[in-house]
Amino acid sequence: MAAQAGLRRLVNLIDYYFSIGGMQMQFNVVSKETLLRAQKDPDKYRNLIVRVAGYSAYFVNLDKTVQQDIIERTEERI
Amino acid sequence: MINSSTCQEIRGNVFDIQRWSLHDGPGIRTVVFLKGCPLRCLWCCNPESQEPYTEIAYFKDKCIGCGRCVAECPYGAITPSPEGFIAEQGICLEKCFGRQDPPYPCTKKCYSQARKNIGRLMTVKEVLHEVLKDSLIYKQSGGGITVSGGEPMFQARFVKELLAESKANWLHTAMETCGFASWKKYEEVMEYVDFLFLDIKHFDNEKHVEFTGQGNRLILDNARRLAQLTRKKGIEMVVRIPVIPGHTDSEENIKSIVKFVATELEGVKVVELMPYHRLGRGKYASMGRAYQLYDLTTPAPGRIDELKQIVLQHGLATNY
Amino acid sequence: MFILIKKGHVIAPCEVYFSEGVDPMSTVLQDEPLHFQLALQPVRTNRIDSMLNYINAIEPGICIERARYLTESYKETEHLPYIIRRARALENILKKMSIYILPGSLLVGNQSSKPCFAPLFPEFTVDFLEEEILQGKPMYPYERPSDKFNVDKEIVPELQDIINWWKGRTHKERVYANLPEEAILAQDAVGAVNIVNFLHGGDGHLAPPYKWLFDHGVGHIIALCRQKLAEIDLTTPEGLESKRFYEAVIISCQALIDWAHRYAELAEAEAARETEESRRSELRKLAEICRRVPEHPARTFHEALQFMTFVQVAIQIEDNAQGICPGRFDQVLWEHYQRDVSRGILNRDQALELVQNFFVVLSTIERIRSWNDTDYFRGKPIFQNLTIGGINPETGEDASNELTYIVLDAIANTRTLQPSHYARWHKKAPEKYKMKVAETIRLGTGFPAIANDELYIPAMMNRGYDLKDASDYCIVGCAEPGVAGLRGGRTGAAWFCLAKILEVTLYGGRDPRTGVMLHPNCNGKDLSSFESYDEVWEAFVDQVKYYIRLHVLMDNITDKLWEEYIEEPLTSALGCPTTCLERGRSIKKGGAKYDFTGNETIGLANVANSLYAIKYVVFDQKLITGTQLLHALKTNFEDMTTDPTGPEIQQMCLLAPKYGNDQDEVDFVARDVLALVCEELPKYKNTRYGRGPIGGVFQASTTTVSSNTAFGRMVGALPDGRQTGTPLSDGQSPMRGTDTLGPTAAVRSVAKLRNVLLSEGSLYNLKLLPQDLKD
User: Fold this and answer.
1) What is the DSSP string of C349-402?
2) Are residues B67 and B190 in the same domain?
3) Do residue B97 and residue B233 come from a single domain?
4) ipTM (interface pTM)
């Protein structure tokens, strides 16, 4: 596997989106599992930062509906 | 772009096309999964890939209980039960599977897709249409198309056409094979392959029969010839060993395979160890069926590192 | 990948059943799943670490000081012009408010008496202060389930007095008095257009021209104003008008300088008490810096950063605005950094620590919104956006430098929510930059977001920006482009809920939740009587146009009243000095070089999916009639007595192709819907049109903040299969859970939209799994 394959993949994806007419993108790099754990055990995940939309916030400080919205966003992967 | 008039005629049975595939060859790729496999590995985590014809999956969690499938099945195969709407397998086999063109009648009005066809007959053109959508990211990442299964050689003619057309469209091509097919087929298909993954599961022939239903002689034989061929063509070939605890993970087995690679497969420089994962377990368990390897756990921490040493000691590279 | 029926070697008493949705791994996972943010501990100096601990230990609260000194001043200035009153009030606040130095901090500037305490802005509205803080309706700010604020009981009597004085004098009351009935209904009943955010504070959304400020100093602005005052012809109405402006600017800028001097005195006093030698000299140096800036040009990196801190904080004290942005941080500070390094008075580590210190100070800024408005802004965003990378506007070459990498290191290691971050991206960006940005993104804090120069620049030029100015853009909010010092006006503007507008269309123009009918469908039909997809589209287009008209009218009324009563002399002088000072008028009166009013379009994916589902289910496949579908929507897909049943109809709707899977037929519907909004808005003028700025029209964006959950509560079941009350899609992202073919397919769908029309910014949220980005 090439060096820094994971980072390259992300760079490729951004280059791809932008080369076909994408304008802006922002990321959450987190698994559903981590977010579910944070919901269950907020104290342990007090510092966990996630992207909402156009800004970031502490996950455990977010309203439940917004937390759910983020959890349910599609995890883009195989 | 796609100019062969013959490719319209051949149809392959494809059960999935996965874009954003990251571990099936260099770069970001699209993997075409084909149905049909000559082996029946006990640990198989894709049981839906084994039969060559279109089958039906039933996802109880998705089922909204409308019961339309009962009425839609002309053979009366489906009856409601506490477990959902269960089809009599014998009838499906006799009336539908491999005999009718999918989609099968019982799935046609299943809007929730609880009952779903697994496997779809597609022309080379149709498959390529999907694959070529991401051609720009293949260029940027050094990726391309990977043909997988099942066992691609089960549909060798289709695979040959698909890969030939892929090459005609400047795609990098990779193939994953279990090695169990006639050499004649490999000879034809390999002309269009740029990168090859070959599985060697067990070096002991009897064990190989016990675990996969077939012996390994043909596989090892093909391995030698494929190594020769890829070396001659100047393309990369990677050998993969599934590390299945209690089955293939003995040092003896790994050593034998690695030694075989080092001494007999000149040109092969990488042996990847594929640790057993429990996705298959979840799948079988969710299917409500006994899975022979249900209690099997993933390799102990550090085990892969130990086995990796064997690979490195033989002057070969490995993943992880 | 899934399942199927196998008949084979294993005993199968029954067939398969298991859900695709559940990852079987999740039930067996014992260990923490990979998450880079949790796995990689931040590296910080003791100074930064202890400052962060200090701030994080403070629970957010409410500070009454600003309200107190503002009101005190306003009571004494009733005879003065509004802009002077505003300047006088700011002067009084900056003179009397408590100031502090964070323990160990190398930078100063505070917005309220304690870190993370929200100041109050009663001139905008007092109704929620009274209801929530005094009466606990619907709950006290400390009872909120999230976004809480503590309230010190001792402030209550004083706050009551302040509220009483402001009643009848607030911005919100004036706006409501001016809005036509149909606009109020569109906002408060139907929930299709919403300007509540702009009843609580000013607009903000700008980047001061820091390079210009560092070079000139605020003293220079005062001198310019004095010179202008001497030249003005006081016999003309324009002259009288600009006299007020210049006087207000002088008062506010002098107040800012004096405020900085208060910090100098405080630092000296603390130095005198300080026992530790190294800290004592730091405080003395800080005192010197505060005597120097912002009055005079900044000579060093440290002075420039302190200058920037003062300006950031002061503008946010003047106005309750969001999106006051440092701009192209690595560009505006590069000269100072380079010079200091070559003179040997600064090294990279010191610069990194200062930048982190800057982030910490910006993190102390807090804003309280009404509970209702909080719904749209969950997690307390302030939007102080910092932009790095991008091209050099003079040469078109990549402009990244060492400071770019220092910012990225600071993001990874400070991990504060403020400022927020953008990295510009373009074809010539070096690989090293892209990899470093990717590495920072991989931490999963959402920082930085990425903006594509090759789209943003032409999008801006399409609305009248010069090539050079557009090439110098920075993000000034969620995703909105601005140019430091050149763009003012109204970047943020009304929420525009497309999903509600589609819903209303399906019911003939009537809002099914409230029964309110503002605008009947142009063809007089509804979902039960549309005879073709074209008729659906025709009615929808007409409704969109109707609500855009309301959107424009609501924003222009807000602007008119801001202009008349709440001008911002300091924001104008620091935000757009070159043009405002030349023209002698504030941004609100047309002082900026570029001026646009924005928009925030919500629910694009739901609308595209719904329109396509109607076409697919009703007109193409003819699975059910429009009447059946309408009934299913009315009953939230729950009616079991119909044939097919509600749940079956929902499944049909869900089965129709969805935006986000690289399927042209539905992606093109999304494209057309968005283009409709993008092209309709610029037909309308804002209140600065023809008064100086280039632009002066409305333009579209797809920023949602968290309003997709708030609006979702008001929107009933839709033909995309979404049930009533659930969150809408965010930004221009596919609806969550419906893009199933992976990120390459999803980004191709999103790229099919005519993004270049989104001159007010594009917003696409992509969620990736950490293990996919593992090396």
Assistant:
1) HHHHHHHHHHHHHHTT------HHHHTTSTT-----EEEE--B-TTT-SB---H
2) no
3) no
4) 0.93
